[in-house]
Design brief:
14% strand, 9 helices, Rossmann fold, 6-stranded parallel beta sheet, alpha/beta
Length: 220
């Protein structure tokens, strides 16, 4: 951080996968791998669904896939079993997934100057364990996972910490993150590695990674 870098006094709420860790693609593939034996047409439909539905709890994704793509009636036990299978396949990888470029530098430089929060759809107990093991916990005032859904989680966070919505910025990589910000009236910065395939409306300020987050925050 140079002496010339400044940021307005925003509270910053970060998504995790695809924003702090480069793990969003890893998780999408792990979801798809659960159904690698499905007929090709259904498998393609599953992959397409997963590419559109970042930022949702895994239970929601599995229930949609089972009931709306595979046409099965999914019991709670079946959904829980799928979630456990998914968790086992990604747990170790998350401990070694590389950070998004600029993420660690931003968190290290700014956590003493801004209020930083982590809000994601990963189950909270699992999320906190990963954050502790990756030595990221000291950067955040609070780490929030699922449940509830992200929009409710953000609303609860705003209330709990008495944050002004127009002085709060959600930083996310999925349309669900954008929708959570919009539904709560906060500001938003989108992270998209491929701007040509951005999931966000054209008027949203986007960055490829966190190396340019300071500049993006100053454009809000």
């Amino acid at each position: 951080m140079s002496d010339d870098d400044t940021i307005p006094s925003y509270a910053l709420v970060f998504d995790f996968d695809g924003v702090v860790l480069d793990s969003a693609t890893l998780k999408r593939q792990a979801f798809a791998d659960v159904y690698c034996q499905a007929p090709e047409a259904q498998y393609r439909a599953i992959v397409a669904y997963l590419s559109r539905r970042g930022g949702q709890p895994r239970e929601v994704k599995f229930r949609h896939i089972e009931e709306h793509i595979l046409g099965k009636r999914a019991s709670d036990a079946r959904i829980q079993a799928l979630c456990e299978q998914f968790k086992a396949s990604v747990e170790e990888h998350l401990l070694t997934a590389p950070p998004i470029p600029g993420a660690l530098e931003f968190l290290s430089d700014w956590h003493h100057h801004q209020w930083l929060y982590l809000l994601t759809a990963t189950p909270e107990q699992e999320l906190k364990a990963i954050v502790e093991q990756r030595q990221l916990a000291p950067y955040f005032k609070e780490v929030v996972g699922a449940p509830p859904d992200k929009a409710t989680g953000l609303r609860n966070l705003l209330t709990r910490h008495q944050l002004a919505v127009k002085a709060t910025v959600m930083i996310g990589d999925s349309y669900n993150d954008y929708r959570a910000a919009r539904s709560n009236g906060t500001l938003f910065v989108g992270v998209t590695a491929n701007p040509a395939q951005s999931p966000f409306p054209a008027d949203v300020i986007t960055i490829k990674d966190l190396r340019t987050l300071v500049q993006a925050l100053n454009r809000l």
